[in-house]
Amino acid sequence: MDRFLLALLMLMLAQWAAAATLGEGKGRPARELNGREVYVQTCAMCHANGVGGAPRPGRAADWAERKPSGTAELLVSVLRGKGGMPPKGGNASLTRDEAYVAMDFMLNGVK
Backbone phi, then psi, for 34, in 5-degree steps? Predict the structure, then answer.
């Protein structure tokens, strides 16, 4: 009986630890990714090499015609998609905050 209780307790602790690493039980990481992480995981496939005219990070000329519209409009384009880019760069689970920090990373090369 003691072994059963110990095994049950260990199972409960393992489930608690797993739940603690996930946000609200929705399979989301407990912390949101920073701009560089989001860029690498979601955006770099197209933006690193300018596939289909995608603006490349750190290249002011690529962003010149996009920057005047402002970050709010750029974020709308990221979230809804634009041209050949699908909404959220094809990553449906991307949060608004993650999309923003990835966009900020590409515009400013920070984080």
Answer: -85, 170
Question: Residue 49 sits in a domain of what CATH number?
Answer: 1.10.760.10
- Together in a domain, 13 and 54: no
> Does 46 share its domain with 17?
no
- The DSSP secondary-structure symbol of 85 reads B
- 66 has pLDDT over 90: no
The pLDDT-based confidence of 67 (bands split at 50, 70, 90) is confident
Question: Are the beta carbons of 55 and 47 closer than 8 angstroms?
Answer: yes
For residue 28, give the H/E element and its range: strand 28-29
How many domains does the structure of the chain reveal? 2
